[in-house]
Every structure is written in C-alpha cells, then in structure tokens.
From TrEMBL:
Keywords recorded for this protein, A-Z: Carbohydrate metabolism, Isomerase, NAD
Domain NAD-dependent epimerase/dehydratase: 4-252
Name the UniProt record assigns to this protein: UDP-glucose 4-epimerase
Entry-linked Gene3D superfamilies: NAD(P)-binding Rossmann-like Domain, UDP-galactose 4-epimerase, domain 1
Organism: Dokdonella fugitiva
C-alpha cells in the first residue's frame, strides 16, 4: 500500500484517480484549491485546500500529508485561453509545478506522476504520434507542459525525484457508476458539450471547421476513457519502483474519430438528435491527433479496458443525465 498525494484530486481526472487508488487499497490525500474542482468529488481521502501558487502552504501540506508519491493533475486546461492569457498558464502550470517539485524535494518525496498532454507535440508530423515525435508545442498551454517535462528530466538526476510524464490525448467518459464525472465551467470539450446539448442544457453545437485535411473535413482526435488513463497512472507508479529516472508515455487508444463521428456516436448512444452547424476553425487545432500507444502497452502493460468511442460516450452520458455537481 502506498500513500499518495493527488494534486487536482477534486477535478475531473483527479477524482477518478482517487477512486481507483482507494479501490486498490492505497491511501489518498487530495491537494486542491477548488478553483476548478468540486468538493463533492472528494470522497476517497481528506482534502487539504491549498493552491500550488502558495509555496509555503504547499510545502507544509506535503510535509503533513506524509505521502510516498505525488500524482500531479492540478492545472489550467484550456488551450485557447492559454493563447489569450499566457501568464496565467505559465504561472499555474509551470510555476505551480516548480513549487511542487521544491516542496517534494524539501519533504523528501521521491516519486511523481505528471499529467502532460499531446499538446506538447504541436502540429503532428506523423499519423500516429509516438514518444520519438519532436516536442514542438504551438500554444502556451503546450509549452508550459513541455517545460514541466524538462524540469522533471533535470530534477531526476539532481534530487533523485523519479518521475513519469503521461501525455494524454483526449480524456473522456466517466466512472460507470456515475458517481463522479466531467464538469468544467466553462465547458470547452466536445463530448460534454454534446451531452449537455442533447440534455437540453445548451443550444446548437458548433463544429470548428469542416475544411481540415481529413476524410470528412472535421478534426480527428484519439478519445481515451478517464479510467483507462487512471490505470496507466497506477502502472506508472509501479514502474518507478524498479525504474528510477524520468520516463514519458503517450496515452491514447490509437484510434482517431472525427468531430462528425463523435456527433454520430452521441446520437447512437442517447437516441437524441444533435443540432450542429459548421463554424470557423478554432485557432491552434491540429487536423489530426492520434497516439501510437505501443510504448505504454509494452513497458507499462497498459491495455485500455474501454477503447470503444460509443462505450466511452455511454459512461459520460450516464453522468450527464444526473450530474451530482
Ligand atoms: N470541437 C468542436 N466544437 C466544440 C468543441 C470542440 O468542433 O464545441 C472540436 C475541436 O475543434 C477539436 C475536437 O472537437 O477538434 C476536440 O476538442 P476538445 O476541446 O474536446 O479537445 P482538444 O482536442 O482541443 O483538447 C484536448 C484537451 C487539451 C489537450 C489537447 C491535446 O482538452 O487539454 O486535447 O491533447 F491539450
């Protein structure tokens, strides 16, 4: 059994992680300032309400938590907003991570799993993005994530803080019991927007461009179930037991779906018609982002349990029909 501090543990992926850690017999301490997370999503361990930007409070929180490892989700998540307000993104995502590393070093904590992103790769140069793809982000969000990866690469030999960066493609879906789910404000992500739309909570959906270089002209993404991402984090923690240093893995299913295919999946799962109109492209959206997950499979033994898009949407729909927060 391990005792794990989960930053951002009141958020979407973080709360699913806490649930999985508890189910595997681990103790959890949530570190979250509740700026984006939800108190009602903190159910599997105590909440220490603390901002990553408050370095002394964070240091104290980590010392008090007496954990063996940290899983670091806390951060700002909107790529478009990062272009409009880069200082916010560098402060929270890079500055917050820097404070966390300093606090870990001071508390003598030696293991970290970090939420990185496919956004570090920028405009893809190959159809399936593996770990050898050049890191060349095109947004402050992606650059901040890449900078944290660099920080971790440097911190491993210097302080003996071993770390795994997990580059998520598109996290989606929800805990099948519908106890927790995806709830952002504002919501920018495609699947929850579509589900809120068919639930009658929001007007027509805009498809951001149908003139991309893809078969139907809409953007292709690799949607991966949130619980499968969490399984990879557990595997990453275990990997660090026998493999010190810094490691990085790309996490996706290796299947790409266009925006129109996601709309069709939402229709198939919910039985409801989606009102969608084509709008202008969204700045910074690559036409296609699909992972090559071979390394995570081979090294971490990661085999997603819910790779089907419809199954992913189905779990999200269960939550959206009766969200608890
Ligand atoms: N889209 C629409 N209409 C919408 C919302 C989204 O057409 O109302 C399109 C987007 O243009 C994109 C696709 O649906 O092509 C998926 O968009 P999301 O906003 O759901 O996800 P992104 O691919 O933009 O971003 C996600 C994560 C980021 C991460 C990025 C790259 O949210 O944190 O993947 O991995 F950086």
């Amino acid at each position: 059994m391990t005792r794990v501090a989960v930053t951002g543990g009141a958020g979407y992926i973080g709360s699913h992680m806490c649930r999985r850690l508890a189910a595997h017999g681990h103790d959890v301490v949530v570190i979250d300032d509740l700026s984006g997370g939800h108190r009602d999503a903190v159910r599997w361990g105590p909440l220490r309400q603390c901002s990553l930007l408050d370095a002394p409070a964070l240091s104290q929180a980590l010392r008090d938590a007496r954990c063996d490892a940290v899983i670091h989700f806390a951060g700002a998540i909107a790529v478009g907003e990062s272009v409009a307000d880069p200082l916010k993104y560098y402060a929270i995502n890079f500055g917050g991570s820097l404070n966390l590393l300093q606090a870990m070093r001071d508390a003598g904590m030696r293991r970290l799993v970090f939420s990185s992103s496919a956004a570090i790769f920028g405009e893809p140069r190959q159809s399936f993005i593996d770990e050898r793809h050049p890191i060349d982000p095109i947004s402050p969000y992606g650059r901040g994530k890449a900078m944290v990866e660099q920080l971790l690469r440097d911190a491993a030999p210097a302080y003996g803080i071993d770390a795994v960066a997990l580059r998520y493609f598109n996290a989606a879906g929800a805990d099948p019991s519908a106890a927790i789910g995806e709830s952002h404000d504002p919501e920018t992500h495609l699947i929850p927007r579509l589900l809120r739309h068919v639930a009658g909570e929001r007007g027509p959906i805009e498809i951001y461009g149908d003139d991309h270089a893809t078969p139907d002209g809409t953007c292709i993404r690799d949607y991966v179930h949130v619980d499968d991402l969490c399984a990879a984090h557990l595997a990453a923690l275990e990997h660090l037991d026998s493999h010190p240093g810094f490691h990085a893995f790309n996490l996706g299913n290796g299947n790409g779906y266009s925006v129109r295919e996601v709309v069709a999946a939402v229709h198939a799962v919910t039985g409801k018609h989606v009102q969608a109109r084509v709008a202008a492209r969204r700045a910074g959206d690559p036409a296609r982002l699909v992972a090559c997950p071979d390394r995570a499979r081979a090294v971490l033994g990661w085999h997603p349990a819910t790779p089907s898009l419809e199954a992913i949407v189905e779990t999200a729909w269960r939550w959206h029909r009766a969200p608890a927060y």
